[in-house]
Design goal:
By secondary structure, the protein is an alpha/beta fold. It is 31% helix and 26% strand. The strands form six sheets. The protein has a four-stranded mixed β-sheet. It has a four-stranded mixed β-sheet with strand order 2-15-17-16. Strands 4-5-3-14 form a four-stranded mixed β-sheet, with helices on one face. The structure holds ligand EPZ. The site of ligand EPZ has 23 residues, from α1, α5, α6 and α12.
């Protein structure tokens, strides 16, 4: 397994291009199953998770050509309906194909996803939504076996806001007979991009951008092309990188409008953030970072995926910070690893109390999940001495060319090829 070796203490100066959003690409790939034909996706990030979803589409009978930040997808012969455990267990988002398979074929056999590193991650909201649309569901040897002849319009309210369940159920609802009203849907930009894409395919969704969608089911959908929106979590991660090392970096190919709460917190920490139409420039102008009080929330609140990076930054603030994680139970696996670098953090249930320290000291640390991994890289950028972040395959799922992007702005970071 590969590692990243960092020598900290170098302020970051220059430009970093933000890649297309992983979490926008994955549901759009699932949506190509809804209509046979040819799709062209651009600004696609080169990431392991995108390759995984592309492989799932191939297993379902699609052709997927991976070009440079571009995918050419042909689902004309995507006639298979089984998403196998061996693949779904490696990436939870594979479960999104359930709604699209039901919408296209009226039947599906999709493995339940494996749990993530932090607590169980159920799919009950996905399944309740499908049942509300008239799907018959059975559990058979770890697979959801679903059939719906036909899908019927309904009114369904999600008990809690869920990005994946909103996307999955929407992809079934667009083909349901009659009208469907979905309430308490997610507002994350990636879900909004999916709804807009489906309308370009001929779906009839209204209320996009609100928490209530009204969907007129249609008999047929047509393929459409798409440009992936920028990755807001990658953007926020690099904001923290500048906060921790000092310096000034322009993040290009970004969309500052995706990150209202995050920019507020970056400014509260003392960073200077200036916005362009498709860029934002982050500068640390003072010697000291200010402590923060963060509570993660659904969009447009503070994103749970940036909780770990902002905790790393708070570890160096002058004072007491507090981070409360409300979306997941126990998404604090990075705390013990940050402590190995000298961070002073106490966890009390869903809340982490961070006592800022003057400096972090390099040490070997272990990645446990995608966002915890990047938090350790950020800490290594700021720590004195050498930090080795092990098991960076987690990082390769969601951060394109991380070490190249950081090297180009002055970081001392390199990948060490590990054994398998
Ligand atoms: C999406 O996951 C993202 N993944 C996650 O990003 C992100 O952390 C999460 O949304 C929250 O923003 C993708 O977009 C591919 P949820 P998802 O359904 O859809 C509970 C990353 O780092 N829940 O909004 O799985 C769930 O347990 C990844 O890129 C149910 O209880 O998240 C969690 O507590 C990590 N029942 C909460 O809702 C369900 O049926 C939010 O989950 C579904 C979810």
């Amino acid at each position: 397994m590969d590692s990243l070796l960092l020598h900290g203490g170098h302020p970051l100066e220059g430009e970093i291009p933000i890649s297309g959003s992983k979490n926008a690409t994955l549901p759009l790939l699932a949506a190509t199953l809804l209509a046979p034909g040819f799709y062209r996706f651009t600004n696609v990030p080169k990431l392991k998770d995108v390759r995984t979803m592309s492989n799932l589409l191939r297993i379902l009978g699609a052709k997927v050509d991976e070009l440079d930040h571009e995918l050419l997808i042909d689902t004309s012969h995507a006639s298979h309906i089984e998403a196998p455990y061996e693949l779904v267990k490696t990436m939870r988002a594979s479960f999104y194909v359930l709604g699209a398979l039901l919408g296209r074929h009226g039947e599906a056999r999709v493995s339940l996803p494996g749990g993530c590193a932090w607590g169980p991650r159920p799919v009950d909201l996905h399944l309740k939504g499908m049942e509300a649309l008239g799907a018959k569901l059975e559990l058979d040897a770890g697979y959801v076996v679903a059939s719906a002849y036909p899908l019927r319009g309904t009114t369904f309210e999600f008990a809690t806001s869920s990005v994946g369940a909103s996307a999955n159920v929407l992809m079934a609802a667009v083909r349901a007979e009659g009208t469907t009203v979905l309430k308490n849907v997610a507002l994350e930009p990636e879900v909004t991009q999916l709804a807009l894409f489906l309308n370009r395919m001929g779906a009839r969704i209204s209320g996009i951008g609100t928490r209530e969608w009204s969907i007129q089911g249609v008999a047929d959908l047509q393929p459409a092309d798409a440009v992936m929106i920028p990755d807001r979590i990658e953007t926020g991660s690099y904001i923290c990188a500048v906060g921790m090392t000092g310096g000034k970096v322009k993040l290009t190919h970004a969309d500052p409008q995706q990150l209202p709460t995050v920019l507020d917190k970056a400014r509260e920490a003392g960073l200077k953030v200036t916005l362009g139409a498709e860029s934002l420039t982050v500068e640390r102008t003072s010697d000291h970072l200010k402590p923060l009080d963060i509570t993660t929330d659904i969009y447009p609140g503070f994103p749970t995926d940036l909780q770990a990076p902002f905790m790393a930054m708070s570890a160096l603030a002058s004072g007491e910070s507090r981070i409360c994680e409300t979306i997941y139970t126990d998404r604090f696996t990075h705390v013990a690893e940050l402590a190995r670098l000298g961070a002073d953090i106490r966890v009390d249930g869903p809340t982490a109390h961070i006592h800022g320290v003057k400096e972090l000291k390099g040490a070997p640390v272990m990645s446990t999940d995608l966002r915890a991994s990047v938090c350790l890289v950020l800490a290594g950028l700021a720590a004195s001495g050498e930090t080795e972040v092990k098991r960076v395959y987690h990082l390769d799922r969601g951060y394109e060319k991380l070490e190249e992007k950081l090297t180009r702005v002055g970081a001392d970071i390199r990948r060490i090829e590990g054994d398998l």
